[in-house]
Amino acid sequence: MSRPIRVLVVDDDFRVAGLHRDVVASRTGFTALESVQSLGAARQAVRTQIPDLLLVDAFLPDGDGVEFVAAAGIDAFVLSAATDAATVRRALQAGALAYLTKPFDARVLAERLDRYARMRNLLVTDRPLEQEQIDRALAIMHGGAEPATVARSATEQLILEGLGDDEASAAEIADRVGISRATAQRHLAGLASRGLVEVRLRYGTTGRPEHRYIAVRR
């Protein structure tokens, strides 16, 4: 099982920082590091705690958060009350994967974090990436639909590779290959109808059965 994604919140308002940190802590697969209120503290935290993702305010008392993002070389979201186009462009040029304007609903940040986890899962591999995988990763992060260039057969092949010799649920397969649960379920149903995967039922403590899938080896 992969280790949790470590997230550092950088915001000079400790109340806002705490709210954002709470959202991170609520998401499965994430670890919320202690938030910091200045760039000096952020630089120290980057050295000692080695975060995977930064959530950074654009303007901080001791410097420019966007410049910090550009220099850090770490995946980052910029969270700011600034809505001027120049600041947004600077953030994107600095490499920010998302720009959220404050104040925003906690669900918005939660959704972006979940997208990031799926994109990261797709790109953390030692194998060369196909163009379809790169397109899918970009579409996941930016909220687009599955790219039209990705053929159904290519998606099904990814699902079969992600399944391997294991038995897994649609949610587990979705996490492994970087697609939505609904997409995984749709393709798994198609594979099952053609006899390429077998569907098994596992009953949990609630009595509601969970569908589990295993590849049929011929």
UniProtKB/TrEMBL annotation:
Q: Which UniProt keywords apply?
A: Activator, Cytoplasm, DNA-binding, Phosphoprotein, Transcription, Transcription regulation, Two-component regulatory system
Modified residue 4-aspartylphosphate is at which positions? Answer: 57
Where in the cell is the protein located? Answer: Cytoplasm
Keyword presence, Isomerase: no
Ranges for domain Response regulatory come to 6-117
Q: Which InterPro entries match?
A: 2C-system_Tx_regulators, ArsR-like_HTH, CheY-like_superfamily, Sig_transdc_resp-reg_cit/mal, Sig_transdc_resp-reg_receiver, WH-like_DNA-bd_sf, WH_DNA-bd_sf
Primary residence: cytoplasm
Protein name (record): Transcriptional regulatory protein
Q: Which organism is it from?
A: Microbacterium yannicii
* Lineage, top ranks: Bacteria, Bacillati, Actinomycetota, Actinomycetes, Micrococcales
